[in-house]
């Protein structure tokens, strides 16, 4: 396990009590405001001394209250990325990066700097001061600084939440490269569902100081009991690009079923994760004919979860689990119940480029 956390901590009116083990990849701490996400992150960072608990990263005990172990933050080989970047304003980009490598083994330094600069595309910014950078550029430098120490774990506290949608879209691919190419493990706080769908390998759901669910991203996000409301609810499926057609359509295959999207900048053979919002999925009996929607996924209902006047339905398909939000009336007319055979009609995978990301692990 990359990270093992067992924590109990009381603030006036708030009690945190969580225990989890995180596999390699990106573990997203997800949950409503005040559920304890930042408190967990702060305890791992060493910014909070927990009342009780033990934290182990890559085999190293960072904190163990039973044995009086508490490594100070600067002795934990962690990279930290904050919401607002927190670069040193009086230092150039290069100096900010070099500050980050302070605790790295001496031999690894020059090579790491070149790799980090290249990977984040910040070579042209090295002599600039943070004040002259855009928000997205600043956040790329902050990611670079976190990487420079060769951390065993990166802690990211809502690293995109201060950015607008375009800047988010600019930064996400870099975070995906950290996850997929450098394979740096991350503990990542977020409350934006599309971001979670893009970046998470594992999702840890917190509620009022408790861990209520931990599991692979695709599993947790497609669980109707935890999927959230509005456009938040959506499932995650893994698809492989099979062909680009001359009429501007990219064909993918998910579990043997074809999916069609407007041309994607990906090569045949590339594996992508797709988020399909529950609000964009209709259900039908049998296999409907003559529809403009291109993506039809036949499956079996294996979860029904009422949400006010609507119902969130989970359909197990060969492509993976898909969620659909329909009205209670439609659910009754269609005979929605566990075991019912229905077809999911995906209306608008096509309109959600931000919902297409690199592979799911
Ligand atoms: N230093 C502190 N002293 C007292 N209470 C605190 C302290 N830090 C956090 N809390 C309380 O602990 C609870 C959890 O806070 P925390 O910041 O971990 O939540 P969060 O899930 O990260 O929320 P958000 O999404 O709003 O950042 C809140 O009720 C908060 O008021």
From TrEMBL:
<feature type="domain" description="Mop">
    <location>
        <begin position="290"/>
        <end position="355"/>
    </location>
</feature>
<dbReference type="GO" id="GO:0015098">
    <property type="term" value="F:molybdate ion transmembrane transporter activity"/>
</dbReference>
<dbReference type="InterPro" id="IPR003439">
    <property type="entry name" value="ABC_transporter-like_ATP-bd"/>
</dbReference>
<dbReference type="GO" id="GO:0016887">
    <property type="term" value="F:ATP hydrolysis activity"/>
</dbReference>
<keyword id="KW-0547">Nucleotide-binding</keyword>
<dbReference type="GO" id="GO:0140359">
    <property type="term" value="F:ABC-type transporter activity"/>
</dbReference>
<keyword id="KW-1278">Translocase</keyword>
<keyword id="KW-0472">Membrane</keyword>
<dbReference type="InterPro" id="IPR005116">
    <property type="entry name" value="Transp-assoc_OB_typ1"/>
</dbReference>
<dbReference type="InterPro" id="IPR050334">
    <property type="entry name" value="Molybdenum_import_ModC"/>
</dbReference>
<dbReference type="InterPro" id="IPR017871">
    <property type="entry name" value="ABC_transporter-like_CS"/>
</dbReference>
<dbReference type="InterPro" id="IPR011868">
    <property type="entry name" value="ModC_ABC_ATP-bd"/>
</dbReference>
<dbReference type="GO" id="GO:0016020">
    <property type="term" value="C:membrane"/>
</dbReference>
<dbReference type="InterPro" id="IPR008995">
    <property type="entry name" value="Mo/tungstate-bd_C_term_dom"/>
</dbReference>
<protein>
    <submittedName>
        <fullName>Molybdenum ABC transporter ATP-binding protein</fullName>
    </submittedName>
</protein>
<keyword id="KW-0067">ATP-binding</keyword>
<keyword id="KW-0813">Transport</keyword>
<dbReference type="InterPro" id="IPR004606">
    <property type="entry name" value="Mop_domain"/>
</dbReference>
<dbReference type="Pfam" id="PF00005">
    <property type="entry name" value="ABC_tran"/>
</dbReference>
<feature type="domain" description="ABC transporter">
    <location>
        <begin position="5"/>
        <end position="233"/>
    </location>
</feature>
<keyword id="KW-0997">Cell inner membrane</keyword>
<dbReference type="InterPro" id="IPR027417">
    <property type="entry name" value="P-loop_NTPase"/>
</dbReference>
<dbReference type="InterPro" id="IPR003593">
    <property type="entry name" value="AAA+_ATPase"/>
</dbReference>
<keyword id="KW-1003">Cell membrane</keyword>
<dbReference type="Pfam" id="PF03459">
    <property type="entry name" value="TOBE"/>
</dbReference>
<keyword id="KW-0500">Molybdenum</keyword>
<dbReference type="GO" id="GO:0005524">
    <property type="term" value="F:ATP binding"/>
</dbReference>
